[in-house]
Amino acid sequence: MSDVWILAHDPAAGNALARSARALGDRVFAVSIGAGVLPAADLTLVIETDGAAVLAEAYAKPVADVLRSRGAKLVVVDAGAQSRLLAGQVAAYLGVSPVNAVGITPGEPLILTRMVFGGLAMATEQITSEVAVLVVGPGTLPASQEPGAGAAEIITVEPSPGVTLLETRAKGGQTVDLTAAKRVVGVGRGFASAEDLELARALAAKLGAEMACSRPIAEGVNWMPTERYLGVSGATIKPELYIAIGISGQVQHLVGVNNAKVIVAVNKDKSAPIFEHADFGVVGDLYQVLPELTKSL
Amino acid sequence: MRIIACFKASPDVADIIVGPGRELDFSRAQWKVGSYDLNAIEAARQLADQVGAEVIGLSVGGEELANTKLRKDVLSRGLDRLVLVQGSPDADSYQTATALAVAIGELDGYDLVILGTGSSDRYAQQVGNQLGALLGLPTLNAVNSIAVDGEKIRVERALEGAEQVIELALPAVVSVTSGINVPRIAGMRDIIAAGKKPVAEQSATMPPASAHIVSLLAPEQVARGRVVVEGDPADTAAQLATFLKSL
Protein backbone atom coordinates (compact mmCIF):
# COMPACT_ATOMS: atom_id res chain seq x y z
CA MET A 1 0.00 0.00 0.00
CA SER A 2 1.07 3.56 -0.42
CA ASP A 3 -0.03 7.16 -0.31
CA VAL A 4 -3.29 8.42 -1.71
CA TRP A 5 -4.07 12.06 -2.38
CA ILE A 6 -7.46 13.72 -2.31
CA LEU A 7 -8.57 17.15 -3.52
CA ALA A 8 -11.18 18.98 -1.44
CA HIS A 9 -12.98 22.29 -1.72
CA ASP A 10 -15.63 21.65 0.93
CA PRO A 11 -14.90 20.55 4.53
CA ALA A 12 -17.72 17.97 4.89
CA ALA A 13 -17.20 16.41 1.46
CA GLY A 14 -13.42 16.54 1.96
CA ASN A 15 -13.50 14.65 5.25
CA ALA A 16 -15.91 12.08 3.81
CA LEU A 17 -13.58 11.59 0.84
CA ALA A 18 -10.55 11.28 3.15
CA ARG A 19 -12.31 8.47 5.06
CA SER A 20 -13.15 6.68 1.80
CA ALA A 21 -9.67 7.17 0.35
CA ARG A 22 -8.18 5.23 3.26
CA ALA A 23 -9.34 2.07 1.47
CA LEU A 24 -6.76 2.86 -1.21
CA GLY A 25 -3.62 3.72 0.74
CA ASP A 26 -1.82 3.66 4.07
CA ARG A 27 -1.63 7.42 4.28
CA VAL A 28 -4.19 9.94 3.08
CA PHE A 29 -2.86 13.32 1.99
CA ALA A 30 -5.18 16.15 1.07
CA VAL A 31 -4.95 19.35 -0.89
CA SER A 32 -7.61 21.61 0.59
CA ILE A 33 -8.70 24.57 -1.48
CA GLY A 34 -10.46 26.87 0.92
CA ALA A 35 -11.74 23.93 3.01
CA GLY A 36 -9.30 24.29 5.91
CA VAL A 37 -7.53 21.40 7.65
CA LEU A 38 -9.24 18.03 7.21
CA PRO A 39 -9.09 16.01 10.47
CA ALA A 40 -9.85 12.78 8.57
CA ALA A 41 -6.64 13.17 6.51
CA ASP A 42 -3.12 12.52 7.78
CA LEU A 43 -1.72 15.65 6.18
CA THR A 44 -3.57 18.56 4.63
CA LEU A 45 -1.86 21.07 2.36
CA VAL A 46 -4.04 24.09 2.95
CA ILE A 47 -4.59 26.69 0.25
CA GLU A 48 -6.26 29.80 1.60
CA THR A 49 -8.40 31.02 -1.26
CA ASP A 50 -8.43 34.54 -2.49
CA GLY A 51 -11.87 35.89 -1.64
CA ALA A 52 -15.38 34.85 -2.55
CA ALA A 53 -15.12 35.72 -6.26
CA VAL A 54 -12.51 33.03 -6.97
CA LEU A 55 -13.59 29.44 -7.65
CA ALA A 56 -11.67 26.54 -6.10
CA GLU A 57 -11.22 25.22 -9.64
CA ALA A 58 -9.06 28.25 -10.49
CA TYR A 59 -6.29 26.60 -8.42
CA ALA A 60 -6.07 23.52 -10.66
CA LYS A 61 -2.70 24.43 -12.17
CA PRO A 62 -0.82 25.11 -8.92
CA VAL A 63 -2.48 22.05 -7.34
CA ALA A 64 -1.15 19.91 -10.22
CA ASP A 65 2.32 21.42 -9.64
CA VAL A 66 2.14 20.54 -5.93
CA LEU A 67 1.00 16.96 -6.67
CA ARG A 68 3.84 16.52 -9.15
CA SER A 69 6.49 17.89 -6.81
CA ARG A 70 5.24 15.66 -3.96
CA GLY A 71 5.33 12.58 -6.19
CA ALA A 72 1.59 11.82 -6.03
CA LYS A 73 0.70 8.59 -7.86
CA LEU A 74 -2.98 8.28 -6.96
CA VAL A 75 -5.35 11.25 -6.73
CA VAL A 76 -9.02 10.87 -5.79
CA VAL A 77 -11.83 13.42 -6.03
CA ASP A 78 -15.57 13.18 -5.47
CA ALA A 79 -18.11 13.34 -8.27
CA GLY A 80 -19.63 16.79 -7.66
CA ALA A 81 -19.58 19.25 -10.58
CA GLN A 82 -16.88 21.45 -9.02
CA SER A 83 -14.71 18.50 -8.00
CA ARG A 84 -15.07 17.01 -11.47
CA LEU A 85 -13.85 20.19 -13.14
CA LEU A 86 -10.95 20.36 -10.69
CA ALA A 87 -10.09 16.69 -11.39
CA GLY A 88 -10.19 17.14 -15.17
CA GLN A 89 -8.02 20.22 -15.12
CA VAL A 90 -5.50 18.83 -12.64
CA ALA A 91 -5.29 15.63 -14.71
CA ALA A 92 -4.73 17.66 -17.89
CA TYR A 93 -1.84 19.52 -16.26
CA LEU A 94 -0.45 16.13 -15.18
CA GLY A 95 -0.89 14.80 -18.73
CA VAL A 96 -3.43 12.07 -17.97
CA SER A 97 -7.09 11.23 -18.39
CA PRO A 98 -9.27 11.11 -15.27
CA VAL A 99 -11.43 8.02 -14.78
CA ASN A 100 -14.96 7.84 -13.36
CA ALA A 101 -14.40 4.74 -11.26
CA VAL A 102 -17.38 2.71 -10.10
CA GLY A 103 -15.10 -0.08 -8.86
CA ILE A 104 -11.47 0.08 -7.71
CA THR A 105 -9.02 -2.77 -7.04
CA PRO A 106 -5.96 -1.25 -5.37
CA GLY A 107 -2.52 -2.55 -6.29
CA GLU A 108 0.12 -2.45 -9.00
CA PRO A 109 -1.24 -1.96 -11.58
CA LEU A 110 -4.39 -0.31 -10.34
CA ILE A 111 -7.54 -1.94 -11.79
CA LEU A 112 -10.66 0.17 -12.32
CA THR A 113 -14.16 -0.38 -13.55
CA ARG A 114 -16.07 2.36 -15.32
CA MET A 115 -19.50 2.48 -16.90
CA VAL A 116 -19.84 2.79 -20.69
CA PHE A 117 -22.69 3.20 -23.19
CA GLY A 118 -25.09 4.68 -20.67
CA GLY A 119 -24.71 1.75 -18.28
CA LEU A 120 -25.12 -0.96 -20.92
CA ALA A 121 -21.63 -2.25 -20.12
CA MET A 122 -18.70 -1.99 -17.74
CA ALA A 123 -15.14 -1.48 -18.92
CA THR A 124 -12.43 -2.89 -16.66
CA GLU A 125 -9.07 -1.30 -17.21
CA GLN A 126 -5.50 -1.19 -15.98
CA ILE A 127 -3.97 2.18 -15.36
CA THR A 128 -0.85 2.58 -17.49
CA SER A 129 -0.04 6.23 -16.75
CA GLU A 130 2.30 7.27 -13.95
CA VAL A 131 -0.41 9.12 -12.11
CA ALA A 132 -4.04 8.04 -11.75
CA VAL A 133 -6.76 10.63 -11.21
CA LEU A 134 -10.03 9.00 -10.11
CA VAL A 135 -13.48 10.54 -9.85
CA VAL A 136 -15.35 8.48 -7.28
CA GLY A 137 -19.06 8.66 -6.60
CA PRO A 138 -20.66 8.15 -3.18
CA GLY A 139 -20.71 4.53 -1.99
CA THR A 140 -17.92 3.32 -4.30
CA LEU A 141 -15.44 3.00 -1.44
CA PRO A 142 -16.16 2.00 2.18
CA ALA A 143 -15.72 4.81 4.73
CA SER A 144 -12.98 4.18 7.29
CA GLN A 145 -13.71 5.04 10.93
CA GLU A 146 -10.02 5.54 11.63
CA PRO A 147 -9.19 9.16 12.51
CA GLY A 148 -6.53 10.94 10.45
CA ALA A 149 -3.27 12.29 11.88
CA GLY A 150 -4.60 15.77 11.06
CA ALA A 151 -1.26 17.43 10.30
CA ALA A 152 -1.28 20.55 8.14
CA GLU A 153 0.95 22.76 6.04
CA ILE A 154 -0.12 26.05 4.54
CA ILE A 155 0.90 26.56 0.93
CA THR A 156 0.68 29.84 -0.93
CA VAL A 157 -0.26 29.71 -4.59
CA GLU A 158 -1.99 31.96 -7.12
CA PRO A 159 -5.26 31.13 -8.93
CA SER A 160 -5.58 31.31 -12.72
CA PRO A 161 -7.44 34.44 -13.89
CA GLY A 162 -10.50 34.84 -16.11
CA VAL A 163 -13.31 33.26 -14.11
CA THR A 164 -15.25 35.44 -11.65
CA LEU A 165 -17.96 34.15 -9.36
CA LEU A 166 -20.62 36.85 -9.14
CA GLU A 167 -23.29 35.14 -7.11
CA THR A 168 -24.25 31.83 -5.51
CA ARG A 169 -27.95 31.06 -5.07
CA ALA A 170 -29.23 28.20 -2.97
CA LYS A 171 -31.55 26.05 -5.03
CA GLY A 172 -35.17 27.09 -4.63
CA GLY A 173 -37.99 24.74 -3.79
CA GLN A 174 -37.76 21.61 -1.72
CA THR A 175 -34.61 19.53 -2.00
CA VAL A 176 -35.00 15.81 -2.25
CA ASP A 177 -32.66 12.92 -1.49
CA LEU A 178 -33.99 10.16 -3.69
CA THR A 179 -31.05 7.94 -2.76
CA ALA A 180 -32.45 7.64 0.78
CA ALA A 181 -36.05 6.88 -0.29
CA LYS A 182 -37.45 3.44 0.57
CA ARG A 183 -40.13 3.62 -2.09
CA VAL A 184 -40.05 5.55 -5.35
CA VAL A 185 -42.68 6.08 -8.04
CA GLY A 186 -41.15 7.03 -11.40
CA VAL A 187 -43.14 8.62 -14.21
CA GLY A 188 -42.34 8.81 -17.92
CA ARG A 189 -43.69 9.90 -21.27
CA GLY A 190 -46.68 7.61 -20.95
CA PHE A 191 -48.31 10.59 -19.22
CA ALA A 192 -49.91 13.01 -21.67
CA SER A 193 -49.77 16.15 -19.53
CA ALA A 194 -48.27 17.58 -16.36
CA GLU A 195 -51.70 17.58 -14.68
CA ASP A 196 -52.04 13.85 -15.24
CA LEU A 197 -49.04 13.23 -12.95
CA GLU A 198 -51.58 13.68 -10.12
CA LEU A 199 -52.57 10.07 -10.77
CA ALA A 200 -49.04 8.99 -9.86
CA ARG A 201 -48.85 11.45 -6.95
CA ALA A 202 -51.99 9.91 -5.47
CA LEU A 203 -50.39 6.47 -5.67
CA ALA A 204 -47.12 7.77 -4.20
CA ALA A 205 -49.00 9.40 -1.33
CA LYS A 206 -50.79 6.13 -0.56
CA LEU A 207 -47.48 4.21 -0.60
CA GLY A 208 -45.45 6.88 1.21
CA ALA A 209 -43.19 7.00 -1.85
CA GLU A 210 -41.06 9.76 -3.36
CA MET A 211 -41.84 10.91 -6.89
CA ALA A 212 -39.18 10.58 -9.59
CA CYS A 213 -39.14 10.57 -13.37
CA SER A 214 -37.35 9.65 -16.56
CA ARG A 215 -35.10 12.22 -18.22
CA PRO A 216 -37.61 13.56 -20.81
CA ILE A 217 -39.99 14.57 -18.01
CA ALA A 218 -37.31 16.73 -16.35
CA GLU A 219 -35.39 17.86 -19.44
CA GLY A 220 -37.70 18.32 -22.35
CA VAL A 221 -41.21 18.92 -21.11
CA ASN A 222 -39.91 20.16 -17.71
CA TRP A 223 -42.83 18.74 -15.70
CA MET A 224 -40.55 17.84 -12.80
CA PRO A 225 -37.27 19.31 -11.45
CA THR A 226 -33.98 17.83 -12.69
CA GLU A 227 -33.15 16.57 -9.17
CA ARG A 228 -35.91 14.02 -9.59
CA TYR A 229 -34.81 12.30 -12.75
CA LEU A 230 -33.29 8.86 -12.59
CA GLY A 231 -30.61 7.41 -14.80
CA VAL A 232 -27.05 7.60 -15.96
CA SER A 233 -26.89 11.39 -15.94
CA GLY A 234 -29.43 11.77 -13.11
CA ALA A 235 -29.91 10.09 -9.74
CA THR A 236 -29.11 6.45 -8.95
CA ILE A 237 -31.44 4.92 -6.37
CA LYS A 238 -31.63 1.72 -4.34
CA PRO A 239 -35.07 1.66 -2.75
CA GLU A 240 -37.03 -1.34 -1.48
CA LEU A 241 -39.60 -0.68 -4.20
CA TYR A 242 -39.50 1.15 -7.51
CA ILE A 243 -42.66 1.56 -9.59
CA ALA A 244 -42.07 2.69 -13.18
CA ILE A 245 -45.20 4.13 -14.75
CA GLY A 246 -45.31 4.96 -18.44
CA ILE A 247 -41.54 4.45 -18.68
CA SER A 248 -40.30 2.27 -21.54
CA GLY A 249 -37.07 1.29 -19.78
CA GLN A 250 -34.12 2.51 -21.86
CA VAL A 251 -30.76 1.33 -20.58
CA GLN A 252 -29.87 4.90 -19.54
CA HIS A 253 -32.88 4.92 -17.20
CA LEU A 254 -32.47 1.35 -15.94
CA VAL A 255 -28.92 1.99 -14.74
CA GLY A 256 -30.39 4.44 -12.24
CA VAL A 257 -32.93 1.98 -10.82
CA ASN A 258 -31.34 -1.47 -11.24
CA ASN A 259 -30.38 -1.60 -7.58
CA ALA A 260 -33.99 -1.44 -6.44
CA LYS A 261 -34.95 -4.54 -4.49
CA VAL A 262 -38.28 -4.85 -6.28
CA ILE A 263 -39.21 -3.25 -9.62
CA VAL A 264 -42.82 -2.89 -10.74
CA ALA A 265 -43.84 -1.56 -14.16
CA VAL A 266 -47.06 -0.26 -15.64
CA ASN A 267 -46.92 0.34 -19.39
CA LYS A 268 -49.36 -0.02 -22.25
CA ASP A 269 -46.69 -1.37 -24.60
CA LYS A 270 -46.31 -5.08 -23.98
CA SER A 271 -42.89 -5.12 -25.66
CA ALA A 272 -41.44 -2.25 -23.57
CA PRO A 273 -37.97 -3.26 -22.26
CA ILE A 274 -39.00 -2.33 -18.71
CA PHE A 275 -40.95 -5.61 -18.41
CA GLU A 276 -37.72 -7.60 -18.86
CA HIS A 277 -36.39 -5.88 -15.75
CA ALA A 278 -39.48 -5.91 -13.58
CA ASP A 279 -40.57 -8.29 -10.85
CA PHE A 280 -44.19 -7.50 -11.56
CA GLY A 281 -45.54 -5.82 -14.67
CA VAL A 282 -48.98 -4.67 -15.71
CA VAL A 283 -49.62 -4.24 -19.41
CA GLY A 284 -52.34 -1.64 -19.54
CA ASP A 285 -53.42 1.96 -19.82
CA LEU A 286 -52.02 3.83 -16.84
CA TYR A 287 -55.06 6.14 -16.91
CA GLN A 288 -57.23 3.14 -16.10
CA VAL A 289 -54.83 1.08 -13.99
CA LEU A 290 -53.57 3.78 -11.61
CA PRO A 291 -56.94 4.91 -10.17
CA GLU A 292 -57.92 1.27 -9.62
CA LEU A 293 -54.55 0.50 -8.00
CA THR A 294 -54.65 3.50 -5.68
CA LYS A 295 -58.19 2.55 -4.67
CA SER A 296 -57.17 -1.05 -3.91
CA LEU A 297 -54.28 -0.15 -1.62
CA MET B 1 -17.30 36.22 -33.35
CA ARG B 2 -16.52 32.55 -33.84
CA ILE B 3 -17.95 29.68 -31.80
CA ILE B 4 -16.69 26.11 -31.91
CA ALA B 5 -19.12 23.31 -30.99
CA CYS B 6 -17.44 19.96 -30.27
CA PHE B 7 -19.18 16.63 -30.71
CA LYS B 8 -18.43 12.93 -30.80
CA ALA B 9 -20.02 10.14 -32.79
CA SER B 10 -20.49 6.77 -31.12
CA PRO B 11 -22.52 3.61 -31.74
CA ASP B 12 -26.22 4.03 -31.00
CA VAL B 13 -26.71 2.33 -27.62
CA ALA B 14 -30.18 1.13 -28.65
CA ASP B 15 -28.58 -0.99 -31.42
CA ILE B 16 -25.81 -2.62 -29.38
CA ILE B 17 -26.65 -6.26 -28.73
CA VAL B 18 -25.54 -7.98 -25.54
CA GLY B 19 -24.36 -11.51 -26.35
CA PRO B 20 -24.76 -14.67 -24.27
CA GLY B 21 -21.36 -14.16 -22.66
CA ARG B 22 -22.32 -10.53 -21.81
CA GLU B 23 -20.05 -9.33 -24.64
CA LEU B 24 -21.16 -6.46 -26.86
CA ASP B 25 -22.03 -6.84 -30.52
CA PHE B 26 -21.73 -3.56 -32.44
CA SER B 27 -22.36 -5.03 -35.90
CA ARG B 28 -25.87 -3.60 -36.22
CA ALA B 29 -25.18 -0.30 -34.47
CA GLN B 30 -25.42 2.92 -36.46
CA TRP B 31 -22.97 5.61 -35.44
CA LYS B 32 -24.62 8.79 -34.36
CA VAL B 33 -23.77 12.13 -32.80
CA GLY B 34 -23.99 12.02 -29.00
CA SER B 35 -27.32 13.25 -27.66
CA TYR B 36 -25.64 15.60 -25.16
CA ASP B 37 -23.51 17.05 -27.95
CA LEU B 38 -26.69 18.24 -29.64
CA ASN B 39 -27.19 20.59 -26.68
CA ALA B 40 -23.74 22.08 -27.33
CA ILE B 41 -24.49 22.59 -31.02
CA GLU B 42 -27.88 24.15 -30.23
CA ALA B 43 -26.36 26.47 -27.62
CA ALA B 44 -23.70 27.56 -30.13
CA ARG B 45 -26.31 28.23 -32.84
CA GLN B 46 -28.58 30.21 -30.52
CA LEU B 47 -25.69 32.41 -29.34
CA ALA B 48 -24.44 32.85 -32.89
CA ASP B 49 -27.87 33.99 -34.04
CA GLN B 50 -28.02 36.53 -31.21
CA VAL B 51 -24.62 38.11 -31.77
CA GLY B 52 -23.85 37.28 -35.39
CA ALA B 53 -21.22 34.59 -35.28
CA GLU B 54 -19.95 31.63 -37.24
CA VAL B 55 -20.37 28.15 -35.72
CA ILE B 56 -17.75 25.53 -36.51
CA GLY B 57 -18.44 21.90 -35.63
CA LEU B 58 -15.33 20.03 -34.49
CA SER B 59 -14.91 16.33 -33.87
CA VAL B 60 -12.13 13.82 -33.35
CA GLY B 61 -12.93 10.25 -34.32
CA GLY B 62 -12.30 7.27 -36.55
CA GLU B 63 -13.66 6.26 -39.91
CA GLU B 64 -17.25 6.90 -38.83
CA LEU B 65 -16.56 10.58 -39.52
CA ALA B 66 -16.36 9.75 -43.25
CA ASN B 67 -20.06 8.84 -43.19
CA THR B 68 -21.90 11.37 -45.38
CA LYS B 69 -25.20 10.87 -43.58
CA LEU B 70 -23.63 11.59 -40.21
CA ARG B 71 -21.92 14.70 -41.58
CA LYS B 72 -25.14 15.99 -43.10
CA ASP B 73 -27.05 15.21 -39.93
CA VAL B 74 -24.74 17.22 -37.71
CA LEU B 75 -24.38 20.07 -40.23
CA SER B 76 -28.17 20.33 -40.53
CA ARG B 77 -28.47 21.17 -36.82
CA GLY B 78 -27.04 24.65 -37.09
CA LEU B 79 -23.33 24.34 -37.89
CA ASP B 80 -21.84 26.56 -40.61
CA ARG B 81 -18.93 24.24 -41.36
CA LEU B 82 -17.14 21.19 -40.07
CA VAL B 83 -13.58 20.39 -39.07
CA LEU B 84 -13.02 16.65 -38.68
CA VAL B 85 -9.89 15.25 -37.11
CA GLN B 86 -8.86 11.66 -37.80
CA GLY B 87 -8.02 10.07 -34.50
CA SER B 88 -9.65 7.20 -32.69
CA PRO B 89 -13.18 6.81 -31.32
CA ASP B 90 -11.63 4.83 -28.44
CA ALA B 91 -9.47 7.77 -27.32
CA ASP B 92 -9.71 8.75 -23.66
CA SER B 93 -10.54 12.26 -22.46
CA TYR B 94 -6.96 13.48 -22.43
CA GLN B 95 -6.18 12.06 -25.87
CA THR B 96 -9.34 13.61 -27.31
CA ALA B 97 -8.77 16.95 -25.59
CA THR B 98 -5.20 17.05 -26.89
CA ALA B 99 -6.31 16.40 -30.49
CA LEU B 100 -9.07 19.02 -30.18
CA ALA B 101 -6.61 21.56 -28.74
CA VAL B 102 -4.25 21.07 -31.70
CA ALA B 103 -7.09 21.45 -34.20
CA ILE B 104 -8.42 24.55 -32.44
CA GLY B 105 -4.92 26.05 -32.42
CA GLU B 106 -4.83 25.73 -36.20
CA LEU B 107 -8.03 27.73 -36.67
CA ASP B 108 -7.69 31.38 -37.41
CA GLY B 109 -8.91 32.61 -34.03
CA TYR B 110 -12.03 31.79 -31.98
CA ASP B 111 -14.00 33.23 -29.07
CA LEU B 112 -15.87 30.41 -27.42
CA VAL B 113 -15.69 26.61 -27.38
CA ILE B 114 -18.85 24.76 -26.32
CA LEU B 115 -19.09 21.07 -25.45
CA GLY B 116 -21.89 18.85 -24.16
CA THR B 117 -22.11 17.22 -20.75
CA GLY B 118 -20.42 14.02 -21.88
CA SER B 119 -20.16 11.55 -24.74
CA SER B 120 -22.69 8.77 -25.27
CA ASP B 121 -20.03 6.07 -24.94
CA ARG B 122 -17.57 7.00 -22.17
CA TYR B 123 -19.52 9.81 -20.48
CA ALA B 124 -16.46 10.84 -18.47
CA GLN B 125 -17.66 14.48 -18.68
CA GLN B 126 -14.05 15.62 -18.88
CA VAL B 127 -13.07 16.54 -22.44
CA GLY B 128 -14.14 20.19 -22.05
CA ASN B 129 -12.48 20.49 -18.65
CA GLN B 130 -9.22 19.09 -20.00
CA LEU B 131 -9.40 21.01 -23.27
CA GLY B 132 -9.72 24.29 -21.37
CA ALA B 133 -6.63 23.48 -19.32
CA LEU B 134 -4.65 22.52 -22.43
CA LEU B 135 -5.63 25.78 -24.14
CA GLY B 136 -4.92 27.70 -20.92
CA LEU B 137 -8.35 29.35 -21.04
CA PRO B 138 -11.11 30.15 -18.53
CA THR B 139 -13.07 26.89 -18.29
CA LEU B 140 -16.37 25.86 -16.75
CA ASN B 141 -18.65 22.82 -16.67
CA ALA B 142 -22.35 22.36 -15.78
CA VAL B 143 -23.26 25.57 -17.63
CA ASN B 144 -27.01 26.03 -17.77
CA SER B 145 -27.29 29.36 -19.64
CA ILE B 146 -24.92 31.64 -21.57
CA ALA B 147 -25.23 35.35 -22.36
CA VAL B 148 -22.58 37.24 -24.31
CA ASP B 149 -21.57 40.55 -22.75
CA GLY B 150 -18.88 42.21 -24.88
CA GLU B 151 -15.55 40.52 -24.28
CA LYS B 152 -17.08 38.30 -21.62
CA ILE B 153 -19.83 35.77 -21.15
CA ARG B 154 -22.08 35.56 -18.14
CA VAL B 155 -23.25 32.03 -17.37
CA GLU B 156 -25.39 30.19 -14.85
CA ARG B 157 -23.91 26.99 -13.51
CA ALA B 158 -26.01 24.20 -12.01
CA LEU B 159 -24.28 22.64 -8.99
CA GLU B 160 -25.80 19.85 -6.90
CA GLY B 161 -27.24 22.11 -4.23
CA ALA B 162 -26.86 25.61 -5.62
CA GLU B 163 -26.63 27.73 -8.71
CA GLN B 164 -23.69 30.01 -9.48
CA VAL B 165 -23.60 33.10 -11.67
CA ILE B 166 -20.15 33.37 -13.20
CA GLU B 167 -18.39 35.68 -15.62
CA LEU B 168 -15.74 34.30 -17.95
CA ALA B 169 -13.31 36.32 -20.03
CA LEU B 170 -13.29 35.28 -23.71
CA PRO B 171 -12.01 33.14 -25.27
CA ALA B 172 -13.33 30.45 -22.96
CA VAL B 173 -14.30 26.77 -22.92
CA VAL B 174 -17.65 25.71 -21.45
CA SER B 175 -19.44 22.38 -21.13
CA VAL B 176 -23.22 22.81 -21.06
CA THR B 177 -25.88 20.76 -19.27
CA SER B 178 -28.34 18.57 -21.11
CA GLY B 179 -31.08 20.85 -19.81
CA ILE B 180 -29.74 24.11 -21.29
CA ASN B 181 -31.98 23.86 -24.35
CA VAL B 182 -34.02 21.52 -26.50
CA PRO B 183 -31.99 20.76 -29.64
CA ARG B 184 -33.74 21.59 -32.91
CA ILE B 185 -34.95 18.92 -35.28
CA ALA B 186 -33.61 19.72 -38.73
CA GLY B 187 -36.10 20.48 -41.50
CA MET B 188 -35.77 19.30 -45.09
CA ARG B 189 -34.26 22.63 -46.12
CA ASP B 190 -31.60 22.38 -43.39
CA ILE B 191 -30.70 18.89 -44.55
CA ILE B 192 -30.37 19.95 -48.20
CA ALA B 193 -28.31 23.02 -47.22
CA ALA B 194 -26.09 20.79 -45.05
CA GLY B 195 -24.80 18.98 -48.12
CA LYS B 196 -23.30 22.23 -49.43
CA LYS B 197 -21.48 23.28 -46.26
CA PRO B 198 -17.67 23.06 -46.18
CA VAL B 199 -15.94 20.14 -44.45
CA ALA B 200 -12.21 20.24 -43.66
CA GLU B 201 -10.29 17.14 -42.67
CA GLN B 202 -7.15 16.90 -40.57
CA SER B 203 -5.22 14.22 -38.78
CA ALA B 204 -4.02 14.17 -35.20
CA THR B 205 -1.17 12.69 -33.23
CA MET B 206 -2.43 11.61 -29.85
CA PRO B 207 -0.55 11.09 -26.61
CA PRO B 208 -0.58 7.57 -25.13
CA ALA B 209 -3.74 6.35 -23.37
CA SER B 210 -3.85 6.55 -19.57
CA ALA B 211 -5.21 3.01 -19.25
CA HIS B 212 -5.80 -0.13 -21.29
CA ILE B 213 -9.03 -2.07 -21.35
CA VAL B 214 -8.95 -5.56 -19.88
CA SER B 215 -12.60 -6.39 -20.51
CA LEU B 216 -15.80 -4.82 -21.78
CA LEU B 217 -18.90 -6.65 -20.61
CA ALA B 218 -22.54 -5.97 -19.82
CA PRO B 219 -23.21 -6.21 -16.07
CA GLU B 220 -24.81 -9.38 -14.74
CA GLN B 221 -28.56 -8.96 -14.79
CA VAL B 222 -30.35 -8.84 -11.47
CA ALA B 223 -32.72 -11.82 -11.37
CA ARG B 224 -36.27 -10.45 -11.56
CA GLY B 225 -39.64 -12.12 -11.11
CA ARG B 226 -40.82 -10.99 -14.54
CA VAL B 227 -44.47 -11.71 -13.81
CA VAL B 228 -46.49 -9.79 -16.41
CA VAL B 229 -50.27 -9.52 -16.28
CA GLU B 230 -52.66 -7.92 -18.76
CA GLY B 231 -56.36 -7.62 -19.31
CA ASP B 232 -59.10 -5.85 -17.39
CA PRO B 233 -57.63 -2.76 -15.62
CA ALA B 234 -59.53 -3.35 -12.36
CA ASP B 235 -58.43 -6.98 -12.33
CA THR B 236 -54.74 -6.35 -13.14
CA ALA B 237 -54.63 -3.43 -10.67
CA ALA B 238 -56.01 -5.75 -7.98
CA GLN B 239 -53.33 -8.33 -8.74
CA LEU B 240 -50.65 -5.64 -8.51
CA ALA B 241 -52.13 -4.37 -5.24
CA THR B 242 -51.96 -7.92 -3.84
CA PHE B 243 -48.33 -8.16 -4.94
CA LEU B 244 -47.48 -4.80 -3.32
CA LYS B 245 -49.19 -5.77 -0.07
CA SER B 246 -47.18 -9.02 0.00
CA LEU B 247 -43.86 -7.13 0.07
Labels describing this entry:
heterodimer; A: 297 residues; alpha/beta; Rossmann fold; 2 domains; 5-stranded parallel sheet; 23% helix; elongated; B: alpha/beta; two-stranded antiparallel sheet; 6 helices; 15 strands
Question: What does this 3D model show about the protein?
Answer:
The complex is a heterodimer of chains A (297) and B (247). Helices cover 23% and strands 28% of the residues of chain A. Chain A has 297 residues and is of the alpha/beta class. Chain A has a seven-stranded parallel beta sheet with strand order 5-9-4-1-2-3-10, with helices on both faces. In chain A, strands 13-12-14-15-16 form a five-stranded parallel beta sheet. Chain B is an alpha/beta fold and 247 residues long. Chain B has a single domain (2-221), classed as HUPs (Rossmann fold). Chain B has helices spanning 35-51, 68-75, 93-105, 127-135, 188-194, 233-246; strands at 2-6, 9-11, 17-18, 24-25, 31-33, 54-61, 81-86, 112-115, 139-149, 152-158, 162-169, 172-176, 199-203, 211-217, 227-230. In chain B, strands 11-10-9-12-8-1-6-7-13 form a nine-stranded mixed beta sheet, with helices on both faces. Chain B has a two-stranded antiparallel ribbon with strand order 2-5. The longest helix of chain B has 17 residues, at 35-51. The N and C termini of chain B lie far apart (61 Å). The relative contact order of chain B is 0.18. At the A-B interface, helix 3, strand 7, strand 8, strand 11 and strand 15 of A face helix 3, helix 4, strand 9, strand 10 and strand 11 of B.
